[in-house]
Write the structure tokens for this entry.
Amino acid sequence: MKRALFIGRFQPFHNAHLLDIKQILKEVDEVIIAIGSSQEKNTLENPFSYNERKQMIINVLKINKIKSYRNKVSGELKNKKFLSNYKIYPVPDLYNDKKWVNYIKKTLPKYDYVYSGNTWTLRCFKKHDSKVKKIKLIKGVSSTIVRNMIIKNKNWKEMVPEDISKYIEKIKGVERVKKIYSKE
């Protein structure tokens, strides 16, 4: 069984993140979703808590029929269509590259590859003998852009899965992002 580590802050989880997970699951059996900066919340770069980000991801993966468990029959997957296991873990900032990578290696399940679109993340893991795969970023799609669109009252909802926009509204995330921005 091949397992991948996919690290991101997911502030918020957007359409490109969903495409990334779907692509990763075409290459491996399971993806470990590591939510970085897990201790952060209510800041301009990290407006959502770890639990809120985790719930966003669970909601959208469930709607997209990406399962968090495996159905086995005689050691094989019962339905190849649902070859899409995932687990979600918090990863705090440790402000030291070596300690951060070692923390992840010791705390999270073993993985075969590290997927990221972040050059710093890939460099950290490559330096510590991990196999890395760079995710192709989609121009014009990022969590920073989504947050900026929220602040500027632009149509941010088209950049995130529908369930995420509903969840952000439910938790009053739009108001929170704007309030945080007004204090900065």
In short: Residues 3-183 form a domain with the Rossmann fold fold (CATH 3.40.50.620).
